[in-house]
Amino acid sequence: MKSDLIKKGIERAPHRTLLRALGCTSDDFDKPFIGIVNSFNEVIPGHMHLKQIAEAVKAGVYSGGGTPFEFNTIGVCDGIAMGHIGMRYSLPSRELIADSVEIMVQANAFDALVFIPNCDKIIPGMLMAAARLNIPSIFISGGPMMAGRKGGQAQALDLNSAFMAVGKVIAGEMTEAELEEIETLSCPGCGSCSGMFTANTMNCLTEAMGMGLPGNGTIPAVESRRIHLAKEAGRRIVQLQAENVCPKDIITRQSIENAFALDMALGGSTNSVLHVMALASEAGVDFSLDAIDKISKRTPHLAKISPSSDQHIQDLDLAGGVSAVMQELGEDLLNTNAITVSGKTVGQIAKDAVNRDENVIHSRDNAYSKSGGLTILFGNLAPEGAVVKSAAVAPEMMVHSGPARVFNSESEATAAIQARSIKSGEVIVIRYEGPRGGPGMPEMLTPTSMLSGMGMDKQVALITDGRFSGATRGSAIGHISPEAASGGPIAAINEGDIISIDIPNHKLSVDLSDDEIEKRLAALPTFEPKIKSGYLKRYAEMVTSASTGAVFTK
User: Fold this and answer.
1) What's the structural domain count of the chain?
2) Domain of 524: which CATH number?
3) 3-state secondary structure 380-394
4) Is 410 in a helix, a strand, or coil?
5) Dihedrals φ, ψ of 150, to 5°?
6) Which of 264, 352, 393, 552 has the greatest number of C-beta atoms within 10 Å?
7) What is the pLDDT of residues 187-211, one digit of tens each?
8) Residue 286 in contact with residue 280, Cβ under 8 Å?
9) Which of 261, 266, 363 is nearest to 305 (CA)?
């Protein structure tokens, strides 16, 4: 065992005395040391209950014959960080999480790991650490939040309801008193926000990839089944350690293809493209946007979860969860021989699943569309690609052409939307908000939610080299690569240039010749970083394009 480095031999007596100070007994020194990587904090609603999850995991580890040691990572709530400088730290926190886990594991010689994430960048940061360290690992998320309810209304509420309500107040369609009521009801308790936003997308993909047990992505945070699953994860990690089943045995090209197939079927967050590509990089798997595009084209869209509909993760869970979606996808769209932390293959798990509600999980014969709920776009405006959550785009905006309204920051665009100066048919361009230019590639949920709340998501499009929340709806195209700060074509757009969006044909272009684009780019001044000190300065110097997952240079 790796932990023998700190507990075996006479020369390790000083180490053992420190371990005894923690409460370890002589019997513990013959058991595997299991690191419990917890992201509990009192800042993120999705994480405020993770102490309870960790206790259940530890109970499982003890019953399985291991010795658990819990430590923490940092975590940012994207909702709280939204719309101010804090959002620039969200994506960069992913690399810090991976690095900090690596440090703790290598310094303390753990034999295996149980990861307890729940929100946004914490999940991919931990997945990247698991692949990098490559010791037996299992994931148990904190589970999704329940949707809120307003009075006797059947329509459910979630975080996006509050963001959209702001737009309705601006449009004069809602009073501030009504906004406050929605504010108090939209997030009723612990768990990751209840729609198919980034956190729930990533927890579902972790399950499909094989790194979490069945139910990891959808069992609600408040249910006892979540505690049962945590105990089982604790027991299972001891078995995985004994069998020496490691993350790189599970995170392969085949399992990543499975994750993206599920992503397309669910119409997940656009951020999943960024994060799973970063994970692939850590796992040594070469995975491009072209490969994702091919999966999107062949995978039907089977479920519409908020923001694409009024259904939420709890509805997906009741319908059969991730396993039932994989069963509907079938052997021709999944790598069924891929192994999982459960000890079963993907095919075995899918075979045992039951689709209990075809109104939530559609059959392939009744798919929302023949291609996936996420679409990769290419063209002279995005030579290296861009991403749109096509599942949340109104039919009338799937193909659109209009004049550009150009803004060099999210705040400028938000002010223009709030001032109601955006006209129907226009294409809002927000640039210099990419990984390097932002820096930190902030999410644009504030402007897109305002547009939706004002009823303009069916009238205007928005494109950016930044990114979007999983809660974003409308013709919102992000991750445009190369980004403006790296001399991408988006930097050459002028006010009034005609931009054409063709989502069914995976195209994004500007009505300019290649020569004109090059001429304009050559005339631009050298990019000047917005932030010149601290972590974001170092991040901007090391980060790569969104088209490669915004990983650090190697």
Assistant:
1) 3
2) 3.50.30.80
3) CCEEEEEEECHHHCC
4) helix
5) -110, 110
6) 264
7) 999 999 999 999 999 999 999 999 9
8) yes
9) 266
Angstrom distance (rounded) from CA 200 to CA 337:
25
Please report the beta strands in 474-529, taking only residues with DSSP state E, as ranges in sequence order: 476-481, 498-502, 507-510
* pLDDT digit string, tens, across residues 372-382: 999 999 999 99
For 26, other C-beta atoms within 10 Å of its C-beta total 8
For 411, counting Cβ atoms within 10 Å of its Cβ (0-12 exposed, 13-18 middle, 19+ buried), the class is middle
The two three-digit tokens of residue 28, written as one number: 């513990």
Q: Note the pLDDT tens digit of each residue in 458-482.
A: 999 999 999 988 777 889 999 999 9
Domain that holds residue 165: 158-188
Residue 138 pLDDT exceeds 80: yes
**CA–CA distance, 243 with 37 (Å, rounded to integer):** 21
Q: What is the CATH number of the domain that holds 308?
A: 3.40.50.2300
Last residue of a domain, one of 352, 384, 403: 352
Mean pLDDT for the chain?
Answer: 95
Say if residue 216 is in the same domain as residue 165: no
In a domain, 363, yes or no: no
**Would you say residue 237 lies in a domain?**
yes
273 with 397, same domain: the answer is no
207 vs 312: CA distance, rounded Å: 18
Cβ count near 418 (within 10 Å):
16
Closest to 245 measured CA to CA, from 231, 255, 260: 255
Residue 150 pLDDT class (50, 70, 90 cuts) = confident
Helices assigned H by DSSP within 34-175: 50-64, 78-81, 90-108, 122-133, 159-170
Report the catalytic residues.
469
Measure the CA–CA gap between 269 and 471, rounded to whole angstroms.
8
pLDDT of residue 153: 62
150 domain-assigned: no
